[in-house]
Amino acid sequence: GGGAVAIEAIVSAELRHPLDRISLDVGVGLGQETVALVGPSGAGKSSVLRAIAGLLAPAWGRIRCGDRMLLDTERGTSLPPERRRVGMVFQDAALFPHLTVAGNVAYGLPSASRRHRRDAVRPVLERFGLARLEGVRPTSLSGGERRRVAVARALASRPELLLLDEPLSSLDPVSKAAVASELSSYLREMRIPTVLVSHDFSDVLGLADRVAVMESGRILQEGTARELLEAPASSFVASLTGVNYFEAVALSRGDLTEIRATAGVVLASADPAFGAVGVVVYPWDVALSLRRPEGSALNSMTGPIGRVTELGNRVRVTVASDPPIVAEVTEGSARRLGLAPGVRVVATWKATATRLVPKAGGPGRGERATA
Predict the structure, then answer these.
(1) CA atoms within 13 A on the CB side of 371
(2) For residue range 169-199, what is the model confidence (pLDDT) as tens digits?
(3) Which of 77, 95, 204, 355 could, after both became Cys, cross-link 36 (CB 3.0–4.6 A)?
(4) pLDDT tens digit string along 220-276?
(5) How far apart are CA 31 and CA 350, in angstroms?
(6) Which region, left, alpha or beta, applies to residue 158 given φ > 0 means left and ψ of -120 to 50 means alpha?
(7) Are 106 and 118 within 8 A, CB to CB?
(8) Taking the C-alpha atoms of 86, 91, 93 and 98 in order, what is their torsion angle to the nearest 10 degrees?
């Protein structure tokens, strides 16, 4: 696509884990694609962002955004950060404490007269719900508001590529849910290729169309969230992903929230919510049996086993229900139940194991991330 970014083979000697043969395409043929880099601290995720932004000089590499070459070490090309048309949101928001909210957002605009900048900033402040805070200094803002100002500043300059470094880290659960929901609607509306970095796989569910898992400066596996969950390429990827995710509609009813998923499946959650939600269930909270068990598990799905993947002394089992669900059981259980592709099983889990998160994306986004 015109705004697609291609990153190839970034290598740098100055990192704890030098980046090794990193190759990443974002938004190719799909201008608004969001790709998440997920991995533990020190994996090299933020270094990839810094290299794209021009804040880190790789020893060797090529970075192309659309038709523009941002970096080509072999040809001696390296555009300075201000010419790269890349918007970056840093992990700690990195706002200027001496500037107001309006001043911080205006900083992202190309230089122009003060009046012109003021006129350009107003619609951005309104779009991000910051108009009432325009004269406030960052120290008076909540964590979620600071994050929102940082995103507004990055997008005010109309970048061709957006970089988000841990946009949901260190927020309390309520702020995290609000910021995730806002981010997903911004990304959908702005239609800008985005690279998002997180150490927590569940934070990027619904925000990212594709996820690349990084460890020690390398991308170990790349795919949709469901592909990584169902067929992790290693025990490291399995331990990092470890979640089911699908989309549903929640209706709060008394103590429990009723959730309607695809094919008329009705589930229950202990989390309060209303409207479109993402449903997160950890595979180790899902029990498998050959017939419906008695007991307190309110949620059940039935279907044939589609895939069995061994992970050390655990077995990850994909049940081809609608929506599909992945369970993780011991080797002993798998043997005792005779779990194999084609065997019909009942997957059950409790309402307390059904976590609800803001539904990200919209038509053409969320479905792809979970199909």
Answers:
(1) 8
(2) 887 777 777 788 888 888 888 778 889 999 9
(3) 204
(4) 899 988 888 777 777 788 778 878 888 889 987 778 999 998 878 899 999 888 888
(5) 39
(6) left
(7) yes
(8) -100
Enumerate the β-bridge partners of residue 284.
none
Beta carbons of 64 and 265 less than 8 angstroms apart: no
Question: What residues contact residue 19 under an 8 Å CB cut-off, 6+ apart?
Answer: 10, 11, 12, 44, 47, 48, 51, 58, 217, 218
DSSP 179: H
pTM beyond 0.90: no
| 8 A C-beta contact, residue 38 and residue 101 | no
Closest CA to 193 of 68, 300, 79: 68
Mean pLDDT of the chain: 82
27, 281, 46, 58: CA torsion to nearest 10: -60
* Structure token pair of residue 133: 């805070």
- pLDDT of 350 higher than 70: yes
The first and second tokens of residue 251, run together, are 């209706």
DSSP string, 84-126: S-EEEE-TT----TTS-HHHHHHTTSPS--HHHHHHHHHHHHH
Which residues, 6 or more positions from 151, have their beta carbon under 8 angstroms from its beta carbon? Answer: 89, 128, 164, 167, 182, 183, 186
CB 245 within 8 A of CB 201: no
What is residue 295's DSSP assignment?
Answer: S
The per-residue pLDDT for range 51-106, each reduced to its tens digit, is 888 888 877 778 888 778 888 888 999 999 988 888 899 887 789 999 999 999 99
